[in-house]
Design a protein that fits this description.
The protein is built from 13 helices and no strands. It is mostly helical and 304 residues long. Helix 4 packs across helix 7 and helix 7 packs across helix 10.
């Protein structure tokens, strides 16, 4: 009944839906759509290749035991990243509307606020992951499944660096800039493969992750914001770098403080783990607030 009734009501409320339109998209519009589809394709393929080659390299040089240990950590970090992804993906419609209707100054302001929210969420999760993931896996699977603390930090850094790309990806999609720099995903994939093979022989699992971090920094981390800021928003790319370095410094200082305070806090049950998680969550938010309360982005976010 509902399936039959909805079209009837829709046609009554919006008669324009019944008007047949024979107009076709012009060639320039079709060309632009095809360019963006190809750009999206290259980016998606790059992510698949990077993730796939990491596992192949680990299985070749470390063995399936190493992959098993590492997969426990990626399972958790990917789950957290998936939740945060839906938060940012839900902004896509609003940012697309913003790109069409608002001037560049307004758009740039929203860009800075989005980048600030991005830093806050991924910085918070980064500090929490580094301090809580080993106790969680120890309770869940046992101490024999743990990776060393330095590997956990590198996994967290990779999580944070990839997360900080979200703002640039959103605005590239909103402005239809996905066709720019199609060669960048290819460079990222090749450099990731070469660096991971070299470093896995030196540092083991850490080497593969470091290879991914370096290849991301020399490609996506600078090119995506450069395209959005210099090409579209006509704003300073250098200022963006300084801002993100400042955010990174805040995150590292917070990690040091939280890690120092929680170092002697032993966990023997999921209840104790939950209490520790709540305390770290509150502490990180307090430290971030102390460092950023005076900024326009913090005030804007607080008003929201």
């Amino acid at each position: 009944v509902q399936t039959c009734a909805l079209p009837i009501f829709a046609n009554k409320l919006y008669p324009c839906l019944k008007i047949k339109v024979n107009d076709k998209l012009d060639k320039n519009t079709l060309k632009e759509i095809n360019k963006n589809i190809r750009g999206t394709f290259f980016y998606q393929i790059s992510d698949v290749i990077s993730n796939g080659t990491d596992n192949i390299i680990l299985s070749k040089f470390i063995g399936f035991t190493g992959i098993g240990l590492y997969s426990n950590y990626t399972l958790i970090s990917n789950a957290v990243n998936g939740v945060l992804y839906y938060i940012f993906d839900s902004m896509m419609g609003s940012l697309g509307n913003l790109a069409v209707k608002e001037n560049l100054e307004k758009t740039y302001k929203i860009f800075k606020v989005t980048n600030f929210i991005n830093f806050w969420l991924f910085g918070l999760c980064f500090v929490c992951l580094v301090n809580l993931i080993n106790p969680f896996i120890s309770l869940w699977l046992g101490k024999s499944y743990l990776l060393d603390f330095y590997t956990v930090i590198i996994i967290g850094i990779n999580f944070y660096i990839n997360g900080m790309r979200n703002t640039n990806i959103l605005f590239r999609r909103a402005y239809g800039l996905l066709s720019n720099g199609k060669i960048i995903p290819i460079i990222m994939s090749i450099s990731n493969l070469i660096l991971s093979i070299i470093l896995v022989n030196i540092y083991g699992i850490k080497g593969v992750i470091i290879g991914t971090i370096i290849s991301t920094l020399i490609t996506y981390s600078w090119y995506d914001p450069y395209i959005v800021l210099n090409v579209k928003l006509k704003k300073s790319f250098i200022k963006y770098l300084y801002t993100n370095l400042f955010y990174g410094l805040i995150t590292l200082i917070t990690l040091f403080i939280v890690n120092y305070l929680s170092y002697f806090w032993e966990i023997h049950s999921f209840t104790q783990w939950t209490i520790k998680a709540v305390c770290i969550f509150i502490l990180v938010n307090i430290i971030f607030t102390i460092f950023t309360f005076y900024t326009d982005e913090f005030k804007y976010g607080l008003n929201l």
